[in-house]
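Project standup — Tuesday

K.O.: blocked on the structure for the chain from last sprint. Re-posting the sequence here as requested.
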Amino acid sequence: MGTRMDLSGTDLTYGLLGLGALAAAMLPTLLSRWALSMPMVFLGLGFVVFLLPLDPLPALDPVTSGPVVEHFTEVCVLVALMGAGLAINRPFGRRTWATTWRLLGVAMPLTVLAAAVAGWGLLGWAPAVALLLAGVLAPTDPVLAGEVRVGEPTDAEFDEDETRFALTSEAGLNDGLAFPFVMAALALSGASATGWSGAWLGHWLGYDVLLRIAVGVLAGTGIGALLGRLVFRARPASLRFSERSEGFVALAVAFVSYGLTEVLHGYGFLAVFATALSLRAAERAHGYHRVMHSFMDQIERLLTAVVLFLVGGFLAQGGLAPLTWRGAVFGLLLLLVVRPVTGYFSLRSTAASRRERAVTAFFGIRGIGSFFYLSYALGHAHVAAPGAELWATVTFTVVVSVLLHGVLATPVVRYLDRREARVPGDRAEAARQG
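H.V.: unblocked you, prediction finished:
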């Protein structure tokens, strides 16, 4: 009694991986009628498994395993971004994407500002650390609540409702646009670890904001256009991937875009999403987009399952022990007050209805991107930050988001669909009007 089961680590890993993959395949259909999400289930499974008397189970510590966390979550994010970009049917434009621009240009900076002030005032952290926390939690997630994102690619350009389109396109772009805020925190920390200094502003604005964003957008768009010609119109026909059912080409495209853009010192996440949009625009109604999107969606589900399973294990091993009540209040304020208020304010003059604005503002889901940015920041610069407490605060915020938004996504979106039901022509006209 009281002894732990002595199992081969390899055998246990194979078994868990197999069961996890089967569950990732089955759960989306099984949970479609319930107020549950696949991430919630894997979060709970990870928590339960790591409480069982099994040997050997690894000690999960993101502070000491920063590079592993960084690169694994990096792959998760770029896979999700490629899938999200391929799924969006609506043509890219100033008016057609008006809701997205407001969420990025108004809601996101206001959220970062409010979160940084809260981190400084409520948690008592130095300005650089408070800004880092705000930047890390700036991106929303295109994965963790499937009900509030667009579905697979279709032939119709304007068949997405405004809420799903806004949340998917916002998440696709702000996963890259969060980088300038994180870099601002690192620059401020380098200039003044405990106070404020403006010596870094000029270089940050010119290089980290203007240059790296421009390189990311231009490189991603150009790579997508070039690969679009290869995929759909290459001569000879043997190079025309669209005539075969090889979905892994999308993964190759994502890696090419990300890697080359990073080499050019642009933001790779931004480039991957831009590449997906550009590739989609090359032959918008082609059925090969469904093949690529389906493959990316499967990979995304597997990676998400692994991440959330490990997060559950991290919780079971006491990962939230360093969390203070102030950190918990910070996370709840961000999810329940800051994002809903800034999101709703940013959408006031859009064509979206009041219900659509409220749902879009509320579902500012925090997720895997936050784990990447935190591990990146702590691994690439010396920040006078309490690493364990930072991880506990960010993990708490993401876990609450997974549970809260996962429970509410299905009933809220179904209610919205019933109340906002419109014929496709009306929706298309509203989107074109901006």
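K.O.: great, moving the ticket to review. The longest strand covers residues 5-6. Residues 71 and 88 are 26 Å apart (CA to CA).
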